[in-house]
Design brief:
Residues 81-227 form the RiboL-PSP-HEPN domain. This protein has 244 residues and is mainly alpha-helical. It has one domain (9-240). It is built from ten helices and five strands; from the N terminus they run E-E-H-H-E-E-H-H-H-H-H-H-H-H-E. It has helices at 16-37, 40-48, 67-110, 113-121, 125-129, 133-138, 142-157, 162-169, 180-196, 204-227, and strands at 2-3, 13-14, 51-56, 59-64, 231-232. A three-stranded mixed β-sheet has the order 1-2-5, covered by helices on one side. A hairpin with a 2-residue loop joins strand 3 (51-56) and strand 4 (59-64).
């Protein structure tokens, strides 16, 4: 998703096209499936089409599925849908991480001096970034070493709640206000799902609300990069509209 530009004028390219399309199609494919999988009338028609097969000493027989069995399966389906909805929160948080990482790497590779700027504000980062002569010698070029540092720094800046992460990012990039509380909520939910096995009751509209927050984060940061003359790949011309 992140790559150097092929011309000297632009040192870095922000691949907004890939980031946006992965999120957009990932969500709407999921939404279409979930609307289908949540339709109880479809589920009941499917269950009624299945025979219950039983066997005894006299051979094998077929019965229409009873309402008790239908209710049992409907509960199973509902549990599965609930699980899938919660896993989508995990997907969205991963998208948030990719957006932040690619933004940071783009900024550092475009202008390495930005790394020195942030280290003045957060001097403790220098040790964790692992500046050393061995790594520098093993890299073929200075640009390769800077790319290595940008990767490490992108991972470092991601630590903590999104509201804290965006505060650090503002030291490198000016961008319009983002609803950080929603991003924090996504992280809180993701952590409870992954680490505690918690399952939230959510409607599709709830997931769409969280998706919109990630999409807004991406478009805001991509526009901010364009505003400082970093090349942003936008094949669909999405950023030519209201986000500018």
């Amino acid at each position: 998703m992140f790559e150097k530009a092929q011309n000297e004028k632009n040192k870095a390219t922000y691949d907004f096209t890939t980031l946006w399309s992965t999120q957009f199609f990932g969500f709407y494919q999921f939404k279409n499936f979930l609307e289908f999988a949540s339709d109880q009338s479809v589920q009941i028609d499917y269950l009624k089409s299945r025979d219950v097969i039983w066997g005894n000493e006299n051979g094998e027989g077929h019965d229409i599925m009873s309402q008790v069995m239908i209710d049992f399966y409907l509960n199973d389906f509902a549990d599965a849908v609930k699980l899938i909805k919660n896993q989508f929160i995990v997907f969205l948080f991963t998208r948030y991480e990719f957006v932040i990482q690619d933004t940071v790497k783009c900024l550092i590779n475009d202008e390495p001096q930005r790394l020195l700027k942030i280290l003045k504000i957060y001097p403790d980062y220098e040790k964790t970034l692992g500046f050393n002569l061995k790594d520098f010698i093993n890299c073929q070029t200075k640009e390769e070493y800077i790319a290595l540092m940008s990767e490490r720094f992108a991972n470092k800046i991601l630590s903590g709640r999104p509201s804290k992460v965006l505060g650090r990012l503002r030291c490198l990039l000016t961008f319009k206000d983002i609803d950080e509380s929603v991003l924090d909520e996504i992280m809180d939910r993701r952590n409870k799902i992954v680490h505690e096995g918690h399952l939230y009751d959510m409607k599709i509209s709830d997931l769409e609300f969280y998706y919109d927050a990630i999409e807004n984060l991406l478009t805001v940061l991509a526009t901010a990069l364009k505003n400082i003359n970093i090349y942003v790949e936008d094949e669909g011309k999405i950023l030519n509209g209201e986000h500018q």
